Amino acid sequence: MAKKNKRLSPRYQVWVDARHKFRLSHAHIQMARELGLNPKKLGSLANHDQERWKSPLPQFIEDLYRERFGSDRPEAVMSIEQIAQKKKDKKNKSTPDPKPESTDTDAGVDLDGDPF
Fold first, then answer.
1. Would 78 be classed as within a structural domain?
2. For labeling, which of 24, 25, 31, 91 is most exposed (least CB within 10 Å)?
């Protein structure tokens, strides 16, 4: 039986596509996101076959991450799917239930007679 793919928002789907296209791990994608790299521009960075002076993309991301944050990898690695699910759960949890509509026909009128 085929497994149904749940659609991600375009914001996250671009990163999933980049992970498949450039054969990156979840850790490399998370490092690239923390560095603020644009997933649409990774192709220009991954051109190490034609431009020999460039390092391979995973190594380039690791070098940038080490230079900026001082560690080799993030402490907790999460996939894009896990990040999207966590954000969705947080959004559903923080959204309060709408208040029930008042059944009073005279809005703003206190029915018990007390003016205060």
1. yes
2. 91
